[in-house]
Amino acid sequence: MDERIHKYFYEELSxxxxxxxxxxxxxxxxxxxxxxxxxxxxxxxxxxxxxxxKTIGKQKYDRFILQKQHAVMWKRWIRRIGYAAAILIIVVxxxxxxxxxxxxxxAEFLSENVMNTxxxxxxxxxxxxxxxxTEVWLNAGSRLDYPSVFTGERRVHLTGEGFxxxxxxxxxxxxxSTQTIDIKALGTEFNVLSYPKSKYVExxxxxxxxxxxxxEFESEGLVLSPGQxxxxxxxxxxxxxxxxxxxxxxxxxxxxxKQKLETIIEKLALYFNVDIIxxxxxxxxxxxxxxxxxxxxxxxxxxxxxxxxxxxIERNEELNQIVLSK
Length: 326
What we know:
Layout: H1 3-9, H2 15-27, H3 29-47, H4 54-70, H5 72-81, E1 87-91, E2 96-100, H6 104-112, E3 115-119, E4 126-129, E5 135-138, E6 143-147, E7 154-165, E8 174-177, E9 182-185, E10 189-194, E11 201-207, E12 210-213, E13 222-224, E14 228-233, E15 236-241, E16 253-260, H7 261-272, E17 275-278, E18 287-293, H8 298-309, E19 312-316, E20 321-325
Parallel strand pairs: 7-8, 17-20
Antiparallel strand pairs: 1-2, 3-6, 4-5, 5-7, 6-7, 7-10, 8-9, 9-12, 10-11, 11-14, 12-13, 14-15, 16-18, 19-20
Helix pairs in contact: 2-3, 3-4
């Protein structure tokens, strides 16, 4: 490994040395992949503690560097399957970072398919820095498929909810693909909600400009301005004013401002990956105003709402269900 990469992430390089390294990374495909590997690794290790204690992340990073320097066979195996073969899964709830590498017989296939995957479990969130410098925050129960190195088009695929702070590059738009629509940006900050069980997709723009469209009808897409939210249902695209508080999920905060329980329950079910069954339809019409921390957990959140609206809560762990009734 180029020792400058290690020093880069410890901020031990001068400005001139940093620029020199980045120029070399841009000129060398091998160095570019190595840099991307450690860039993502360092970010993910720090995520293990919700970025609350970066000392722990640095200790894990040091251990990983030590292992790579002393395990020759390990290094050869990494070279064989390539960084592109790694599927990165962060389990934030237990602060464990797990690497799953392909079996040798899968290596040839995955060396051509350079996509990586980051998944966040229910009730947790994560952050990732992509190779081009784009920052991504993933909400609970979400998945991001992304290349280790962007060659040409910058495209990722999102399932769930993510916030993107896109690195500026006028020559290469950044595209987020969802289950139904694509969102294209040059350099901007926006949020995308696209859970598989959701009946809609939402795109909220904080800064810059983005275009949302159906892949086969890009010319008919809609361009958003800061403060606007696009809602896609079926074959329709509609612009609305966004609620800025909804972006607080990046900090682990869920805000509900006079929302019906129907909406709140739907979001909680997605965030915590649990089926919520409502026996009495009138419960869905209740309204609630409040703010919760993600770490409070779904049962605590529901019990706080229960104190106001007085419904019953039953949880079935085996079926992964929560039943609300009068």
